[in-house]
Description:
- This protein is α/β, with parallel strands linked by helices and 222 residues long.
- It has two domains: 5-151, Rossmann fold (3-Layer(aba) Sandwich), CATH 3.40.50.2000; 153-222, no CATH class.
- It has helices at residues 22-31, 51-59, 75-82, 116-120, 126-131, 135-148, 167-187, 194-211, and strands at 5-11, 36-40, 61-66, 86-89, 112-113.
- The longest helix is centred in the last third of the chain and has 21 residues, at 167-187.
Amino acid sequence: MKKQYLLSFTGATRPNNEDSIRSQIINQCLDSRKQCKFLNCASGENKCDNPTYVIEIFQRSKFCLQPSGDSFTRRSTFDSILAGCIPVFFDSRSAYEQYIWHLPKNYSKYFVFIPEDEVKDGRVNIEKTWSCISEEEVAAMREEVVRLIPRIIYANPMSRLETLEDAFDVAIEGALDRVEKIRQEMEGGKSTNRKERNNKTQLQWREIQRLDPPIFRSHHIS
């Protein structure tokens, strides 16, 4: 889909939160005219509850602004990744410090980070910042974002993702690794082969699926 907007932001101000930078982001977005798409999610009739409409905006945007919401992480972050839109974070706790299993450590390859303080102090012009990024860099980052999609969705248990791990697989693998590390610390034993652990887990999961009716999982990890 053709990228109609350089930036987009779906959300509303947080007037009762003095630390929120949403007002500054919205003002800069509105000032940029056609470069930035703002979908106002303030109380009242709006299209923010229409996931199809929101995803279409993200699909038409190169970068999706993701300031903190009611918590550090927003659902919009995962919507933007699903749409292939490069997320822009203003707080390191908004994504990669929380989802250490699901999001790779090479952060700069799939998102842009701007410290909140620079936005509050007016030291950053959002539009000019991303206008300086080349099309080649944007394309490379978007490819990395697309590669993240399987890791943040829950696949239909009836499907077979033989070569891809979904969010459930990633979480189970992370939990097994953590348990194994604790076991080694407590017992001083040798590490169990990861492939053997994975095979055992898959057999157990298949047995659960055989006994219980299929459950369609939510498409978000948050």
